[in-house]
What we know:
The chain is built from eight helices and 17 strands.
Amino acid sequence: MIHVFIVNPMAGRMDFAEKLRRNISEFKDIEYYIFDTRNAGYEGELISRIQHIFEDEKLRIYCCGGSGTIRNIINDIDNLDNVEVAFYPCGLSNDFLKVFPIKEQKRFSKLEELIHGDVIDVDYIRYNNKGIALNNFSFGIDSVVLEEMEKYRFLNTIGNLSPYLMTLPISLLKSRTLKCEVTIGEKHYVDDFTEIFFGNGNVLGGSVHIYDKAVVNDGMGKYLLLRSDARRFWTIPIVFNMIKKKFYKLNYVTEYGDAQNIYIRRINDGPIKYNVDGELLTFGGTVKLEMVKKGLHFVVPKGVTLDEQ
């Protein structure tokens, strides 16, 4: 097996990439290669080259960064059946790992745990029949946060959390509603929504809980529709109730459930800016989301399992 490390040098602390290379060099019993991303979106070009170079080899690809890094990598893998994917978390948000118990989450930050780890099959989200997301596809407060964060990226030099901390209160006040048509099975909604979430995981932004627990190997996604009535409560208390997992306080303005497919369309056919695993992407027309059951071979520390469905 070939171990391929794709490193986002902008993730984590400024000396992250250098320390990671030193740590990898200590493993003498594996054949490995290290590639750095140059900028957001460069992962696709790297993956294309890697798949060509190692066409006949079994690959374990280590995504060294945050949620956006792993999304950008798996989104450009030609055939997920032939690849094992590991997530070495060091970005601002590593939300998918929140589906594991806290004591297990910490083990993902140890390279030896991943290099000598096991593989389990997990679900992923396919959007518009080709794109891939692992944790979430959503819009609302979270997509406003991502949009605003671009203005404060320079604060990374102070600390990795600085842009987020600067942006969050501004985004809560600037959050807006969009009139959308949403179809989930036989259910059909037309309303002004503050937030629409379809996810494999259960956490956004590292601490905002959409559900108490997520199941990531049953072929079903979790959805949340936060209607415009939420404006009566304003967005700040809503977010804090989600952080504290006080979901009962949101029952009046939310629709929760499980679904395999969901369709979202803005009523005036204008574009929507979505949060796709921490990346801000814009789509017009109807967006089709579907959960692919156990479609990703995901590397976990030895002994970590998921309840079989």
